[in-house]
Amino acid sequence: MPPLASTDPILIVDDDSALCSALKFALELEHYIVRTYASAAAVLGDTAMPSPCCLVIDYRLPGMNGIELLMRLRARGITAPAILITTSPGGAVREAAERGGARIIEKPLLTNALSEAIRCAISV
Predict the structure, then answer these.
(1) Which of 55, 38, 39 is CA-nearest to residue 1?
(2) Res. 18: pLDDT tops 80
């Protein structure tokens, strides 16, 4: 997959609308294009999902968890860099994220770790 450009969108998948809004606002201040989704089903049903992109996926989603969503996207051939956001991930979650090629950023998102991970993903 070619490297991402800063003009390629960041897709945030999280059912917490306040967090989605805050992340969208903060990332748009850094001049990123951001799209938000409230569920895994919304992402999977998006027939116009942009590619390339950078995925930021919450682990706890309604209907399926973030790892399951990532694996479904990978099965569709979507190789976008992915970041999993979660609270206190256990060993199984860490191993599954690694298998899916996702970096984990732990909540609460109090530092700039997420924006740094996005910058790293985009510069690869």
Answers:
(1) 55
(2) yes
Instruction: Annotate 36-77 with DSSP letters as a single string.
Output: EESSHHHHHT-TT--SS-EEEEES--SSS-HHHHHHHHHHTT
Judge contact between 67 and 60, C-beta under 8 A. Answer: no
pLDDT, position 6: 59
Q: The pTM is what?
A: 0.91
**What is the C-alpha separation between 49 and 53, in angstroms, rounded?**
9
Q: Which domains does the chain have, with CATH numbers?
A: 10-123 (3.40.50.2300)
Please say if the pLDDT value at position 63 is more than 50.
yes
